[in-house]
Every structure is written in C-alpha cells, then in structure tokens.
C-alpha cells in the first residue's frame, strides 16, 4: 500500500482515485443507462441516483487484464494511477454494486490467488477487458466535501455484458432501485450535478455533436479548471 492509499484510510476527505461505469443500452433506438440510488445515510451523495462506481483499491493494480486499456494515454495524463488499475476497479465496482459481469473469459482468472474483493468475480473465469471500456469523462470533487474523488468514467455497451442485463440478483446493497434509465427521461431523477453533466456529454456524443478529447473537470484546489485530455 502506497502513502497516498494509507492516507485516505485515516483522512476520509483526502482525494482518492475512483472509477465509474456507464453501461449503455439500446444506443441505436432510445438509449438507456444503468443507474441506482445511494442510501440516504451515505456520507457521499446520499439518496442521489448515480452510475455504478467507487474508489480504486490497492489490490486492483494486481489484477491482470484480458486486453490493455484502449485509452491508456488519456488515462495516464495527469495521473499517477496505472490505467490498468482504473479499468479493473470499474469492473469490480460494477460487479459488486449491480451483480453484472463485464470482462472476457481467461484461464488466468482461476489460476491466480484472488485477493479480497475479487474472489467472486475471478471465480466466474473472467478478467477485466480494457479493450471494451471507453474513457469518456473525468471529474475531481471540489474541496470541502466529506469525500473527494478523482473519478474516471468509462462507457461500456450492455451487449458486452456476460450475463442477463436485467438480473441484479447478485448485487450488494450499496445501490438500491437499480434500473435502466432512458436518457430523455433522466432529468426526473435526483442526480448529482456532475452526473447531469456527464449525461449531457454522453447525449452529445451519441448525436455526434461532442468535441474531441475527454472532458476533465479539475477541482484539485479552490480554482475550478476545465480541459480535455
């Protein structure tokens, strides 16, 4: 465990790397994305509807990928966290919070010693697949919040899931009301501001109106900066 990882265990407001997954369904007709509601007692964004995701754990960097990240260069920009760890964390969080399986069959999955948090996933015989995860957004939580994350958002296709996209029976209890939300109906949900921004960017991308590069909302300090990676 590095010094940065050790620090966040004692200082909950310390900036922590995170990975979020936007699972897109019916992109060619009426697009839907998978969302769930955080608990009302959660320290970070209570009761809000969000995408599956969470903090990167130190063990995520030990998990091999079936194929390398497609956006390794952009993921590495202004970041000390290996791109492979970010893809692995996104895959693990999707599995934990929704029970949905994303990845590729790989014999190495059952041959390595599975660390805590990975036993169930690796037991399926799959490894995270960086080739199918598109890096579409990055945002850092502003100072002064009880939890702060440097979150990378990955877009994946529901067709790439290795399971029934409507079967959430293996999900843990961090997110409730898991459901597929139509993009044109998303505004009726109580979402964090940054989630609304990400959905707007996704809508622009699907229509072909998005600008090139990955949007980056950088709030590392009291000066808010916007750039594209």
What does this structure look like?
With 229 residues, the protein is of the alpha+beta class. It has one domain: Alpha-Beta Complex (Nucleoside Triphosphate Pyrophosphohydrolase). It contains 5 helices and 11 strands, in the order H-E-E-E-E-H-H-E-H-E-E-E-E-H-E-E. Strands 1, 2, 3, 4, 7, 8, 9, 10 and 11 form a 9-stranded mixed β-sheet that branches. A two-stranded antiparallel sheet has the order 5-6. The longest helix has 16 residues. The model has no long low-confidence stretch (mean pLDDT 92).
Q: What's the shape?
A: globular
The CATH class assignment is Alpha Beta
Overall number of strands: 11
What is the chain-wise order of helices and strands?
HEEEEHHEHEEEEHEE
**Strand fraction band?**
25-35%
Rounded to an integer in angstroms, the radius of gyration calculated over CA atoms is 17 Å
Mean pLDDT: 92
* CATH homologous superfamily identity: Nucleoside Triphosphate Pyrophosphohydrolase
Helical coverage, percent range:
10-25%
> What would you say the CATH architecture is?
Alpha-Beta Complex
Alpha plus pi helix count: 5
Q: At the third CATH level, what is the topology name?
A: Nucleoside Triphosphate Pyrophosphohydrolase
* Structural class by SSE content: alpha+beta
Largest sheet: 9 strands, mixed
The poorly predicted ranges are none
- Summed up, the domain count is 1
Distance between the termini: 28 Å
Comma- or semicolon-separated keywords:
alpha+beta; nine-stranded mixed beta sheet; 11 strands; Nucleoside Triphosphate Pyrophosphohydrolase; globular; 229 residues; two-stranded antiparallel ribbon
């Amino acid at each position: 465990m590095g010094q940065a990882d050790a620090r966040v265990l004692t200082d909950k407001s310390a900036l922590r790397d995170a990975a979020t997954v936007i699972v897109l369904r019916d992109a060619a007709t009426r697009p839907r994305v998978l969302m769930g509601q955080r608990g009302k007692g959660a320290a970070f964004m209570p009761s809000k509807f969000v995408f599956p995701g969470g903090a990167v754990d130190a063990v995520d960097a030990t998990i091999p990928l079936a194929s390398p990240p497609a956006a390794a260069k952009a993921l590495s920009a202004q970041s000390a966290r290996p791109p492979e760890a970010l893809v692995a964390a996104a895959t693990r969080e999707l599995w934990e919070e929704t029970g949905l399986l994303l990845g590729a069959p790989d014999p190495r999955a059952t041959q390595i010693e599975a660390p805590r948090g990975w036993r169930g996933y690796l037991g399926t015989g799959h490894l995270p697949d960086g080739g199918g995860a598109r890096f579409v957004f990055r945002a850092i939580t502003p100072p002064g919040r009880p939890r702060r994350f440097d979150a990378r958002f990955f877009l994946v296709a529901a067709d790439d899931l290795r399971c029934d996209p409507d079967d959430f029976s293996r999900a843990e209890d961090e997110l409730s009301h898991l459901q597929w939300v139509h993009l044109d109906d998303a505004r009726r949900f109580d979402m964090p501001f940054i989630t609304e921004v990400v959905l707007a960017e996704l809508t622009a991308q699907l229509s072909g109106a998005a600008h090139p590069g990955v949007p980056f909302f950088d709030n590392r300090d009291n000066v808010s900066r916007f750039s594209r990676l």
